[in-house]
Structures are given as structure tokens and as C-alpha cells.
Amino acid sequence: MSGPQIANEYPFRTAPHGDDHGHAHAPSAEDDPELVYWERRTHALMKLLERNAILTPAEVRRQIELIESVTPMRGAKVVARAWTDPAYKSRLLADARNACWELGFDIKPIVHLTVLENTEQVHHCVVCTLCSCYPRTLLGEPPGWYKSTAYRNRIVVEPRTVLREAFGVDVPPETEVQVVDSTADSRFLILPRRPAGTDGWAEEDLVRLVTRDSMVGTGHPLPPAAIGR
Amino acid sequence: MSPRFQPGARVRVIARPRAGHTRTPRWLFGKEGIVEAFHGRFPDAEKIAYHAYGLPPVPLYFVAFAPREVWGDAMRGFGPRDRILAELYEHSLMPA
According to a count of CB atoms within 10 Å of the terminal CB, is the N or C end of chain B lower? Predict the structure, then answer.
């Protein structure tokens, strides 16, 4: 076997850049020879799949629509339920997958789910240093920073610095920081701490305080004042 | 058949557990940690990468490491009791 994948080369350009076009046009393999190697390869594979009636552009679009239809709202509902219902929270921490299923979420794509509770004693944050494993079924697609080599490299080396400087999260010295690298089948959802001043709140109001970043461990939920209460 | 390692067991990550694709991060090779939990058995992702089924399923452990063990004197941006956790296959672990 040989080729760029084995040699670990990452060709960004297959041909030297010629004249500057000075205008933008939609990239297509046929008339834009400057498309980077992987884009051209993807495009070629798509064309082959289409030509051989294995996959249609409509099916691809439909799959993209399904992927993009998932938002962090699912995770936020799980968090809000855990904040208001102690019995549910126990079930969630013991068997997260079934607890999500209880709320009607199709959790099948996540093979193993672990919910990690942030407390006064411990603050968890999640990364995938190997690639970009992320509980997409509960949070949707990960943000660009989560997939960046900067985050993936630095969060396991200097987590408190990254949390403070990049995310404005200052973890007190008395609180343990646990950096969780999702290297295998588990996906991790952080159960953030319930904001102060929310006693007696209904679930649908608490949901509005749960941010995506708070479920990854790089942010805190919003305070009541953020929604005008 | 019970899992080889129990929670609390001291384990060491085998350096280069297998030729080819591994999901054991290089920066944990040779590091000593403590088993936090047994997560169950799952198809071997390292074999699935080569288009095999990855069966029988292999045991997966949640293992905790001290930052000083992992980064040594280069440790920075960590508190004294902070930890790094990763999910590791049984075949990449040995008793410490």
C-alpha cells in the first residue's frame, strides 16, 4: 500500500497556483483546477456514487438536513429535567443512555453515554484529542473550536489556562479539573451546576439557561438575569 | 468472564500496544493511571478501521491519570488534584 494516507502527507494543492482570478466562482472539479486534493477526491467519489445509482444528491442533502436538525436543545432538556427531578438525575448518572431514551430522544447512534456532573468539588471538560468525537445526537454538530488542533492539543496540557483565557471560565483552585478525552466508544455530556436564584423554576425556563458550552465543560449556564428574571 | 481490571486498579499504558491504527493516545504511552470504571465490551475500533468486524467485543476502561505523571516537569495549567481521564482498551493496559 502506498499513497498520501499511508505516507501521512496532506496535499493541500495538486497544481501550482496560476494567475489570480480576481473573482470568486463556485468550485467544481471540471472547471476549477485549484480545488484542493481532498475536495476534488470527495467530489469524484460523489460523482461515482451518483453515476452508479448508489447514492443520490437528494439523499445526501436529506442526511445533511437530519444532521443539522439536531441542536443542543436535546441536551438542554436532559439537563433541565435532571435539575428539577432528583430521581431522574439518579437514573441519568447511573444509566445515561436509557435516561435520554425516557425523554424520547433516539439515542441509538450513541453506543455508550456517560453524564459527568459538575459540582463545587469537580469541574469536567470534554475533548477528543484523536479526532472530534462529540455527543452529536444530543448536542448537534460540534463547534469549530472543538475540532481545532489548538483546543485538542492545549486542553489536555494546560486546561485551567485554556478555560480561563479562551472561554472566560475561572475554575477555583479548590475545585478539581478533570479533562476527559473521549478516545473510544463513550460520549460524554456534562451536567452543569444549576444557576443560583432559580428555585422553583419550571423546566421550560431552566432549559433557556443551559448553554451548549456548559454541556461540554467550557462554559457555565446563563444566570437568571440573562433571560430577564 | 469478568473484566481483568477492577476500579481502583493501578495500570500502565503499554507503549505502542499494536502495529497500525490505535486509539490509545501517544501522549499516554507508558503512563501509569488508576482504573476509574469498567465501561463494558465494545467492538474493537482498531480492527474496524481495517474493515474487519472488530468482534469479539473488547473490554473498555475509563482510566484516570495525574497530570504530573503525564507531563512531568512540563506540567502547567493544572491544579494539584486535577486529573486527565481517557477510555482505553484492555489490550493497551498492563498491571502497574
Answer: N
